[in-house]
């Protein structure tokens, strides 16, 4: 599903960029604020997943210990999981958009580096958001129940 979002956004952005150039408009150039905010969202999402990761890591230690472990609020974990899924979808759409624009920019007769650098930076920030979204989704997954497997 994520791949479909990426492809759709890439096709739409390439089509829009072609339309814009053919009608005398500029190719879309992403502002630096999008790159910064996307990377910041990825860092915040990763920070939100730390308590869940610590809880899952301590579950293994709990099996051999007599200490009691305070559980993570399940509503918090679900919220973080939903944020991670939304971040992954958003990152995929941004990757597709910037990839489509960059394809149009690099197939143009003249490549302006001042126009490609912000789009490449935004593409990398979107890739970071997508990767962090996938990692946080894995962190929020419930551990498999060993008793059901036997």
Spell out the blueprint of helices and strands.
Layout (H helix, E strand, L loop, with lengths): L1 H21 L9 H32 L10 H33 L6 H28 L5 H4 L1
Helix pairs in contact: 1-3, 2-3, 2-4, 3-4
Q: Could you explain the architecture of this structure?
A:
The protein is mostly helical and 150 residues long. It has helices spanning 2-22, 32-63, 74-106, 113-140, 146-149. α2 (32-63) runs antiparallel to α3. The two termini are 33 Å apart. The model has no long low-confidence stretch (mean pLDDT 89).
Cα-based radius of gyration, to the nearest Å: 20 Å
Helix content: over 70%
The domain count comes to 1
Give the CA-CA distance, first to last residue.
Answer: 33 Å
List how many beta strands DSSP finds: 0
Largest sheet: none
Summed over residues and divided by their number, the pLDDT gives a mean of 89
Low-confidence stretches are none
């Amino acid at each position: 599903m994520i791949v479909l979002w990426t492809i759709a956004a890439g096709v739409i952005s390439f089509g829009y960029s072609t339309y814009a150039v053919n009608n005398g408009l500029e190719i879309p150039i992403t502002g630096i604020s999008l790159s910064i905010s996307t990377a910041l969202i990825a860092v915040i999402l990763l920070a939100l997943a730390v308590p869940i990761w610590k809880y899952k890591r301590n579950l293994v230690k709990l099996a051999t210990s007599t200490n009691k472990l305070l559980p993570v609020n399940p509503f918090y974990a679900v919220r973080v999981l939903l944020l991670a899924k939304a971040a992954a979808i958003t990152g995929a759409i941004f990757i597709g958009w910037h990839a489509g624009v960059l394809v149009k920019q690099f197939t143009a007769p003249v490549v302006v580096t001042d126009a490609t650098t912000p789009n490449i930076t935004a593409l990398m920030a979107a890739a970071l958001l997508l990767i962090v979204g996938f990692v946080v989704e894995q962190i929020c997954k419930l551990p498999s129940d060993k008793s059901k497997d036997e």
